[in-house]
Amino acid sequence: xxxxxxxxxxxxxxxxxxxxxxxxxxxxxxxxxxxxxxxxxxxxxxxxxxxxxxxxxxxxxxxxxxxxxxxxxxxxxxxxxxxxxxxxxxxxxxxxxxxxxxxxxxxxxxxxxxxxxxxxxxxxxxxxxxxxxxxxxxxxxxxxxxxxxxxxxxxxxxxxxxxxxxxxxxxxxxxxxxxxxxxxxxxxxxxxxxxxxxxxxxxxxxxxxxxxxxxxxxxxxxxxxxxxxxxxxxxxxxxxxxxxxxxxxxxxxxxxxxxxxxxxxxxxxxxxxxxxxxxxxxxxxxxxxxxxxxxxxxxxxxxxxxxxxxxxxxxxxxxxxxxxxxxxxxxxxxxxxxxxxxxxxxxxxxxxxxxxxxxxxxxxxxxxxxxxxxxxxxxxxxxxxxxxxxxxxxxxxxxxxxxxxxxxxxxxxxxxxxxxxxxxxxxxxxxxxxxxxxxxxxxxxxxxxxxxxxxxxxxxxxxxxxxxxxxxxxxxxxxxxxxxxxxxxxxxxxxxxxxxxxxxxxxxxxxxxxxxxxxxxxxxxxxxxxxxxxxxxxxxxxxxxxxxxxxxxxxxxxxxxxxxxxxxxxxxxxxxxxxxxxxxxxxxxxxxxxxxxxxxxxxxxxxxxxxxxxxxxxxxxxxxxxxxxxxxxxxxxxxxxxxxxxxxxxxxxxxxxxxxxxxxxxxxxxxxxxxxxxxxxxxxxxxxxxxxxxxxxxxxxxxxxxxxxxxxxxxxxxxxxxxxxxxxxxxxxxxxxxxxxxxxxxxxxxxxxxxxxxxxxxxxxxxx
Amino acid sequence: xxxxxxxxxxxxxxxxxxxxxxxxxxxxxxxxxxxxxxxxxxxxxxxxxxxxxxxxxxxxxxxxxxxxxxxxxxxxxxxxxxxxxxxxxxxxxxxxxxxxxxxxxxxxxxxxxxxxxxxxxxxxxxxxxxxxxxxxxxxxxxxxxxxxxxxxxxxxxxxxxxxxxxxxxxxxxxxxxxxxxxxxxxxxxxxxxxxxxxxxxxxxxxxxxxxxxxxxxxxxxxxxxxxxxxxxxxxxxxxxxxxxxxxxxxxxxxxxxxxxxxxxxxxxxx
Lengths: 768, 270
Ligand SMILES: Nc1ncnc2c1ncn2[C@@H]1O[C@H](COP(=O)(O)OP(=O)(O)OP(=O)(O)O)[C@@H](O)[C@H]1O
Ligand SMILES: [Mg+2]
Known about the structure:
Number of strands of chain B: 9
Order of helices and strands of chain B: HHEHEHEEHEHHEEEHEHHHHH
Shape of chain A: globular
Largest sheet of chain A: 8 strands, mixed
CATH superfamily of the largest domain in chain B: P-loop containing nucleotide triphosphate hydrolases
Bound molecules: adenosine-5'-triphosphate, magnesium ion
Largest sheet of chain B: 5 strands, parallel
Number of strands of chain A: 19
Distance between the termini of chain A: 43 Å
Mean pLDDT of chain A: 79
Shape of chain B: elongated
Radius of gyration of chain A: 34 Å
Strand content of chain A: 5-15%
CATH topology of the largest domain in chain A: Rossmann fold
CATH class of the largest domain in chain B: Alpha Beta
Distance between the termini of chain B: 58 Å
Structural class of chain B: alpha/beta
Number of domains of chain B: 2
Radius of gyration of chain B: 21 Å
Structural class of chain A: alpha/beta
Oligomer: heterodimer
Strand content of chain B: 15-25%
Low-confidence stretches of chain A: 405-418, 464-475
CATH topology of the largest domain in chain B: Rossmann fold
Helix content of chain A: 40-55%
Number of helices of chain B: 13
Number of helices of chain A: 28
Number of domains of chain A: 5
CATH architecture of the largest domain in chain A: 3-Layer(aba) Sandwich
């Protein structure tokens, strides 16, 4: 390829970054001798690496010409995938090392039975979510452990020579980690105190417990071992097939116990471990010392044991070991079993804290929305008492009482019980949804801090815009803001009521735009009208059918006459109502982000003019909205035409007034359009988005997050029986479009001048 | 005309159908019957709606006429039409008219699938008028007290696309069905699938695992019906893993990753 072409493509791929000319020249030079195919394949990787690390990407480009002498081109993308995994896991250095070492690190490693997590992740995730019945996540990690939300797994497994066995091992790890979570191994509360862990600051009781021993590490490992035996017992009942398959595995790796110089405590634990693995643990301990443990095993096999029993057993073991403490080596821990992994209480605490903050924030947000919807007097009363509170000496937090309708307490109906909340003696009835959220929070964290209520009241007072930035001056709001959830792919869950959508009016702007456009496309408009008229159909009666809704009297008379006359009489005597009419509703979503300034924006407007002219002939129901905004608290939809609004001068003026605004947060716009379409009863419902690029907002709504949320919003639309379709004005196709819309549901218009003609054509093909 | 009694006998349920009540639905339905109120059954596929109707019809000793609705179902298909026989126009009652005349139970399965204009004909039948106008004959049928109207729909899928109009919805006593509680479902699978209890229990656990996958790309998990079918195959000598694969795993999805994950569940359970 020639240099200018390469250069241009490169800059396009790394946009909006603008690297130095000379650096780029140096990078691209070696590619001048490469074939087109090689260049294209290599360039395809740039958008994947560049945003993650520029220097890694440069290194990659430098090293490739050499590397491709060893690495087949077909393996390039999976190799790049692994480089990025390394980067994510161990940083730049490790990724560079792996990249340089293509021969021994990638090509020649012993591949027998190797299973890469990346290849089985989807399957494993679905597996464990189904088994656990909760939204766990999995991620590659340096060690096996769980923080109760995510289970960290080795990035690859090659323990066994058959890949099926390695996959089984993955499942086994997952099952054990789930068992710990389900059994509350990490979150065991203080057996004496009644209160569960209450606030974001408090630490797990187990920390205190382990610290109370002279050798905390040993106490911890004993506890974790006992809990592992308990987990195994739990899994024998929950997943007998898996446990049986595990028992059948060739031979399980025993952690190295060869070291003779280990401390007596470590010897005890290793002995326990190996007995556990060869299945002799429970019998062997029948006669041996420590009555507490003997009792523990007996109950484990019988009625079962719980975390408190493990705690008691740990105390007994540690007491028995106390005599050995003076002699021998200091206990330094033993290697945990592979599926057992590590116990990381700090990670559990961190997750707990995060959840507290995140759910707290979500809760405050919904409460604020709820309070803002209360009658004005009540809200004012709340605000007043809140203010008094702040000025008074009684402390800063609001007094909150929750009244979980006591009538139902303890009965099965309890979870559904309505919920009242009193804030500073003011009773507030919660909506079912908010009540549910409050209840979940309360269940998980034990109490609802009063300061949440204070900030909710505060935000409701400010007109419910938690971190709103005043937008540029435009027309007023049309209706109360509406909240939509947003999809967070990182935790595969919704952020509740995350985006606030306001419907706005475009500024009043008289322009000659429509008139100009109509005269510019005069001939086209007439042709379009004609074309679209031909597509129009309506109810019609088909006569002389074999069956139908009514008798076709003409045919009947004829047939009777025929019969009398001795002719064969027809049996086509019915009228049938044929309903092949167009029953289509369509919403057009118009990207009004600032990137559409100039040519693109004008072309979009012209297309809309032609489109509406054609649609009027056709009679399909349609609505048009522009979308833009900034941050989740200010997602704006601009009203151009509602479904039932006639097409007239005001609509035309509004099309003329479309102008570039701010950012492109697609999710909420799509969700709103979905809800509009869902309300129509049309047979075919279309959602056509007209945009010039990627979804992106000012905050962290970018990259994968933005794409995944948009994709999810589109999936929701599809689930609601809506067909989403996208018209993108861009220079070239991007991979993410396939991912977003599915292969056939979008189209590229790379020459913006063609858009006005293409759009009605696309619509025609779509709907006939 | 009028001789509709003969075919109706086929619709009478003589043998007591096996039905395990999930709550007080039987009592409520009987009360609704006594008060002349129509029933709306909602719930996911294969959770016992049809079976419940059969049981109810048996218990009330009424014939049960079931119509599966589809989007081409017209008013005539329900009410009736003229046919030409030997040069004469003969009126044929549709299933709904038949049921009204005979005081039977008419069950419109998956009523949301029917066209909106079709659903409207049941309106006068479903409120306190309890009448069915047959426009083409200029006849107004008054339903006898024995007549009962019941409709079902599955809110799980296409719910927004084909939701019932409020004016239709708000005529019914609504019974919400769901998969039975674990113990009950095990009983049902044992009974209907002819299985040992422990195998049935594992099947039900498998179903629950698949029902956990709502947010992971499986809108509806395995139904009781699928478990029963797996049970029947097992009873006929098909080995458990295979039976689960063909009767539970494969019918759920076509997505290879999903299939692998559900197979993993089967492997872990049995
Ligand atoms: N409560 C129950 N008692 C007895 N059998 C049941 C019960 N629930 C489900 N079944 C069994 O499950 C099978 C499927 O139930 P049924 O056909 O009634 O489902 P449905 O709700 O009508 O499903 P669909 O919406 O797909 O028509 C029945 O044949 C029956 O064997
Ligand atoms: Mg049914």
